[in-house]
Amino acid sequence: MDEISGKHQAGSCGGAGAAFDAMDSDQKVALVRALRWPLSASAGARSCLTTPGRPVRPLLVDPKNLPRRRALTTVAGRFALLHALTHIEFNAINLALDAICRFPGLPDSKPEEACLD
């Protein structure tokens, strides 16, 4: 990883690193779909200093600054629920990509090492 930019160097985590860094959600999905198991155990681990690539818009806001949640009995409330679930799934993708880069070769090499961090 390039410590100055906080981004992965080419090939540092293979396709998982590129997917982790992707800011465009469509590109991130395409890169994730292109990953194949087993992933390369030779990919080097990266520092934990980076944050996942996120779309430029919409801007991230503090949840305290958002309007109160809508009732699920309304159309707007159901859309809000789907929107929240989309955020949760997007973060789950980034979490999985982070684990792939952070623990190269697991679980095949030493599964117990995954619990030591």
From TrEMBL:
One Pfam family cited in the UniProt record for this chain: DUF455
Protein origin, superkingdom: Bacteria
Name listed for the protein in its UniProt record: DUF455 family protein
